[in-house]
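Collaborator request, handled under Task 6.
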Amino acid sequence: MEQLVTIDLLGQSYTFKTDSEVFKAEEVADFLVKEVEKIESQHSVKTLDVTKFTILIVAALNIADENFQIKKSNSEFLNDISQRLNRIIRTLDENIV
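Structure tokens returned to the collaborator:
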């Protein structure tokens, strides 16, 4: 069932529909808000010409990079586990009489 979730981002409210549970959608939205606020605070001190769009793009790139790194790490972990299991299976096969 679709439900509505509203977040405040860069001084503007955004409402979107979600098929997932509201608390999950709110958790994701809160993560985005915190990332945007982090980028905004880092750049508002240094330059005044940073636009809201630029802040959103940098936040999105940071989140995408973090997601990519997690996926890469998980893939490497699963590959390592697979190799170890194959060695264990070979060892067991060789030693079972």
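The cover message to the collaborator said: "Residues 3-95 form one domain. The chain has one domain: 3-95. Please let us know whether this matches your experimental observations."
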